[in-house]
Design goal:
- There is one protein chain.
- This protein has one domain: Rossmann fold (3-Layer(aba) Sandwich), CATH 3.40.50.720.
- The chain has a seven-stranded parallel beta sheet, with helices on both faces. A three-stranded mixed beta sheet has the order 7-9-11. A two-stranded parallel sheet has the order 8-12.
- By secondary structure, the chain is an alpha/beta fold.
- The protein contains nine helices and twelve strands.
């Protein structure tokens, strides 16, 4: 089987590529990326096909699909967070037209199953403490609005062209290679002016002082290796009853992550922010468990241990 991942050398793409090759025995994994980053492919460089291309260029997508005889696609090429005001239009163009190009070229190539990366951010501010897939969507960020738009476009392709595009709405996924600064669109860490907690983890491993978000804040968690399994299940599901699935593993306070980080790094200089904890969105994950068979293997403790081991074995990935 040949599977193409857009944004394939990014954070989730690199975890998924490794999972497909090592855990699932997929022989042909194609990583389509505008800015390929070989640092995240340590140990599998010779087993993947890296294609430098832009989702805004449909001919480049078609060429990759044709050359590698791709049978299924995972669409992960998507900016995260929120852009600077002067970059809103280019950002939205990639998010919307890029997604449209992926769906359309897959259709032209005869591909039925595409797994689309949506987000918890589609829900926006919500009174519910356990969001279900059919709850109202009120995104309050450009990121969330574009993700919701991608789900609606997927519905059009499914209804009018007989495709089977499945969208996953992940919570904040943690793991090597996703370290960035700023507030987080999904509501996990709304502590502005602080780096994202994954950037903090990588700084702590390097011996730098960090300040973690408030410990009492309850959050959805999923380690990237489990997220990769969720994408695989969505790729292979036969007649999935739903078109969009919430994706998370545990629901635990951020303080548990901080405590485990301190245990694993006893010499780390870790403080906790005194700012009030933010009440973020929390998702119900019943559907993905019951309908796709998602059974996460990693907890905060085991995921963080693996994450730190990967940071130490690939230090270049954590440096920007």
């Amino acid at each position: 089987m040949s599977i193409m991942i857009t944004g394939g050398t990014g954070f989730l793409g690199s975890y998924l590529a490794r999972h497909l090759l090592i855990e699932k025995g997929v022989e042909d994994v194609v990583l389509f990326d505008r800015y390929p980053d070989p640092r995240k492919l340590q140990g599998i460089e010779d087993r993947v096909s890296v294609v430098e291309g832009d989702v805004l260029e449909p001919q480049e997508l078609l060429a990759a699909l044709d050359r590698h005889r791709v049978e299924r696609v995972v669409h992960l090429a998507f900016g995260v967070g929120g852009p600077e005001p002067e970059k809103i239009v280019p950002y939205a163009r990639v998010q919307t037209m890029g997604t449209a190009n992926v769906f359309e070229t897959a259709r032209l190539h005869g591909i039925v199953r595409v797994v689309n990366a949506s987000s918890l951010a589609v829900y926006g501010p919500h009174e519910s403490t356990s969001l279900h897939e059919d709850d109202p969507k009120r995104p309050d960020s450009l990121y969330g609005a574009c993700k919701l738009w991608s789900e609606h476009l997927a519905d059009v392709y499914n209804d009018e062209h007989g495709m089977e595009i499945v969208s996953l709405r992940p919570c904040s996924v943690f793991g090597l290679g996703r370290a960035w600064r700023g507030s987080f669109a999904s509501g996990l860490v709304h502590v502005r002016d602080l780096p994202h907690y994954m950037a903090l983890t990588e700084l702590a491993v390097r011996g730098e002082p960090i300040t973690m978000p408030p410990g009492s804040q309850l959050a959805d968690w999923c380690y990237a290796a489990d997220a990769a399994e969720a994408w695989w299940l969505a790729l292979m599901a036969v007649n999935p009853p739903h078109r969009a699935y919430n994706m998370r593993a545990e629901q635990r306070p951020i303080g548990d992550y901080t405590a485990e980080l301190r245990r694993l790094l006893p010499d780390a200089r870790i403080e906790v922010s005194e700012r009030p904890a933010h009440v973020g969105q929390l998702m119900d994950n019943t559907l993905i468990r019951e309908e796709l068979g998602f059974a996460p293997r990693y907890t905060i403790e085991t995921g963080l241990a693996d994450y730190i081991e990967r940071i130490r074995s690939a230090p270049d990935v954590t440096r920007r």
